[in-house]
């Protein structure tokens, strides 16, 4: 099967697509994959490092644009569809899979015009604008959360879960050794979380020397955050711009402080890790709050709105959880019970069925 994966921009959109590509290539020696994204998205950096092919189109998002801004994007959208059409002509995919993000739209529209089967994967509990608009032309919409079903034509949806990067489904139970706190704000980091965590360090003095902290800051906040840890006396903390092996990071963690993107929640559940979820308040349709509310209502994590987050409050939540191993174990068990495994194979099976039907 020749599969074109369209979208990206953030790790939440890209990493499920990477998981699908890796699964397909590992299971079928004759399979081919191609990613379509933009030069500004995370895909432009990550995919070459992984040895996965990428072509780009020139497109920006509609969200946050005023009327005139949207009108100015019309010629760019038309041009990006032409760019995507040329990519399709060269690659000749059997199926086009949109994973959300700006580049997903032009590729799916071009595929629809050419009669190529289209599949959408929606990662969030409330779908993004691109997927809501394009779902009417897709043969199948694969959902990570059943709650997203209300936004689509239910006859075309299937609950698959969220494909995860290699190693995630092999995550062990909570470690019994040194306490470890994992902190990250998405692939680009989150300044609000970075600063709140640095501010929380003086309130966590009782844990210094017996708590290991691994903190992904994003490139922009690396120096400021490193200096904050150093000034607070936490020189042994691992403060880095990006964590390449997230499966290993989850495996060591007893508690995770993070945003509430869909891919992050899928990773938390399949790894069985308790969490403090701080939804990004400006996400489209506030979908991260919907994601976090879903997980916290089950007892797998705690939701802390960014508007209510202070360093003192964050430190108190961390301290309470780290001092209560039985509660951590209970949250971990609930999280793991919510996991949907085998998502990549389910989605690829749908793609194969559509490709075979189109060839008849």
Automatic annotation (TrEMBL):
<dbReference type="GO" id="GO:0071555">
    <property type="term" value="P:cell wall organization"/>
</dbReference>
<feature type="domain" description="Glycosyltransferase family 28 N-terminal">
    <location>
        <begin position="4"/>
        <end position="141"/>
    </location>
</feature>
<feature type="binding site">
    <location>
        <position position="124"/>
    </location>
    <ligand>
        <name>UDP-N-acetyl-alpha-D-glucosamine</name>
    </ligand>
</feature>
<dbReference type="GO" id="GO:0005886">
    <property type="term" value="C:plasma membrane"/>
</dbReference>
<dbReference type="Pfam" id="PF04101">
    <property type="entry name" value="Glyco_tran_28_C"/>
</dbReference>
<feature type="binding site">
    <location>
        <position position="243"/>
    </location>
    <ligand>
        <name>UDP-N-acetyl-alpha-D-glucosamine</name>
    </ligand>
</feature>
<keyword id="KW-0133">Cell shape</keyword>
<comment type="function">
    <text>Cell wall formation. Catalyzes the transfer of a GlcNAc subunit on undecaprenyl-pyrophosphoryl-MurNAc-pentapeptide (lipid intermediate I) to form undecaprenyl-pyrophosphoryl-MurNAc-(pentapeptide)GlcNAc (lipid intermediate II).</text>
</comment>
<dbReference type="GO" id="GO:0008360">
    <property type="term" value="P:regulation of cell shape"/>
</dbReference>
<protein>
    <recommendedName>
        <fullName>UDP-N-acetylglucosamine--N-acetylmuramyl-(pentapeptide) pyrophosphoryl-undecaprenol N-acetylglucosamine transferase</fullName>
        <ecNumber>2.4.1.227</ecNumber>
    </recommendedName>
</protein>
<dbReference type="GO" id="GO:0051991">
    <property type="term" value="F:UDP-N-acetyl-D-glucosamine:N-acetylmuramoyl-L-alanyl-D-glutamyl-meso-2,6-diaminopimelyl-D-alanyl-D-alanine-diphosphoundecaprenol 4-beta-N-acetylglucosaminlytransferase activity"/>
</dbReference>
<dbReference type="GO" id="GO:0050511">
    <property type="term" value="F:undecaprenyldiphospho-muramoylpentapeptide beta-N-acetylglucosaminyltransferase activity"/>
</dbReference>
<comment type="pathway">
    <text>Cell wall biogenesis; peptidoglycan biosynthesis.</text>
</comment>
<dbReference type="GO" id="GO:0051301">
    <property type="term" value="P:cell division"/>
</dbReference>
<keyword id="KW-0472">Membrane</keyword>
<keyword id="KW-0132">Cell division</keyword>
<feature type="binding site">
    <location>
        <position position="288"/>
    </location>
    <ligand>
        <name>UDP-N-acetyl-alpha-D-glucosamine</name>
    </ligand>
</feature>
<keyword id="KW-0961">Cell wall biogenesis/degradation</keyword>
<keyword id="KW-0573">Peptidoglycan synthesis</keyword>
<keyword id="KW-0808">Transferase</keyword>
<dbReference type="InterPro" id="IPR004276">
    <property type="entry name" value="GlycoTrans_28_N"/>
</dbReference>
<keyword id="KW-0131">Cell cycle</keyword>
<feature type="domain" description="Glycosyl transferase family 28 C-terminal">
    <location>
        <begin position="180"/>
        <end position="342"/>
    </location>
</feature>
<dbReference type="GO" id="GO:0005975">
    <property type="term" value="P:carbohydrate metabolic process"/>
</dbReference>
<dbReference type="InterPro" id="IPR007235">
    <property type="entry name" value="Glyco_trans_28_C"/>
</dbReference>
<dbReference type="Pfam" id="PF03033">
    <property type="entry name" value="Glyco_transf_28"/>
</dbReference>
<dbReference type="GO" id="GO:0009252">
    <property type="term" value="P:peptidoglycan biosynthetic process"/>
</dbReference>
<dbReference type="InterPro" id="IPR006009">
    <property type="entry name" value="GlcNAc_MurG"/>
</dbReference>
<comment type="similarity">
    <text>Belongs to the glycosyltransferase 28 family. MurG subfamily.</text>
</comment>
<keyword id="KW-1003">Cell membrane</keyword>
<keyword id="KW-0328">Glycosyltransferase</keyword>
<feature type="binding site">
    <location>
        <begin position="10"/>
        <end position="12"/>
    </location>
    <ligand>
        <name>UDP-N-acetyl-alpha-D-glucosamine</name>
    </ligand>
</feature>
<feature type="binding site">
    <location>
        <position position="187"/>
    </location>
    <ligand>
        <name>UDP-N-acetyl-alpha-D-glucosamine</name>
    </ligand>
</feature>
<feature type="binding site">
    <location>
        <position position="165"/>
    </location>
    <ligand>
        <name>UDP-N-acetyl-alpha-D-glucosamine</name>
    </ligand>
</feature>
């Amino acid at each position: 099967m020749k599969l074109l994966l369209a979208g990206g921009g953030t790790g939440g959109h890209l990493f499920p697509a990477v998981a699908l590509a890796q699964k397909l290539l590992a299971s079928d020696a004759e399979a081919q994959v191609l990613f379509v994204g933009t030069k500004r998205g995370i895909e432009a950096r990550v995919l070459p490092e992984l040895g996965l092919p990428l072509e780009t189109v020139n497109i920006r998002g509609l969200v946050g644009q005023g009327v005139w801004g949207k009108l100015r994007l019309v010629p760019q959208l038309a041009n990006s569809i032409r760019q995507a059409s040329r990519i399709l002509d060269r690659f000749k995919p059997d199926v086009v899979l949109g994973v959300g993000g700006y580049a997903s739209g032009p590729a799916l529209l071009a595929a629809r015009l050419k009669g190529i089967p289209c599949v959408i994967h929606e990662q969030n509990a409330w779908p993004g604008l691109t997927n809501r608009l394009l779902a009417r032309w897709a043969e199948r919409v694969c959902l990570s959360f059943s709650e997203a079903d209300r936004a689509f034509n239910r006859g075309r949806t299937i609950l698959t879960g969220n494909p995860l990067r290699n190693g995630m489904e092999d995550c062990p139970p909570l470690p019994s050794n040194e306490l470890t706190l994992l902190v990250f704000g998405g692939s680009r980091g989150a300044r609000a979380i970075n600063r709140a965590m640095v501010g929380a360090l003086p309130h966590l003095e009782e844990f210094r020397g017996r708590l290991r902290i691994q903190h992904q800051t994003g490139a922009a906040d690396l120096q400021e955050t490193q200096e904050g840890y150093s000034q607070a006396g936490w020189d042994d903390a691992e403060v880095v711009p990006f964590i390449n092996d997230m499966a290993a990071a989850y495996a060591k963690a007893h508690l995770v402080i993070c945003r509430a993107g869909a891919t992050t929640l899928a990773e938390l559940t399949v790894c069985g890790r308790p969490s403090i979820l701080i939804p990004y308040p400006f996400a489209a349709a506030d979908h991260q709050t919907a994601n976090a509310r879903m997980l916290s209502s089950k007892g797998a994590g705690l939701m802390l709105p960014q508007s209510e987050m202070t360093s003192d409050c964050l430190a108190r939540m961390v301290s309470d959880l780290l001092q209560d191993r039985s509660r951590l174990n209970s949250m971990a068990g609930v999280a793991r019970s919510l996991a949907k495994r085998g998502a990549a194979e389910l989605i690829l099976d749908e793609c194969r069925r559509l490709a075979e039907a189109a060839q008849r």
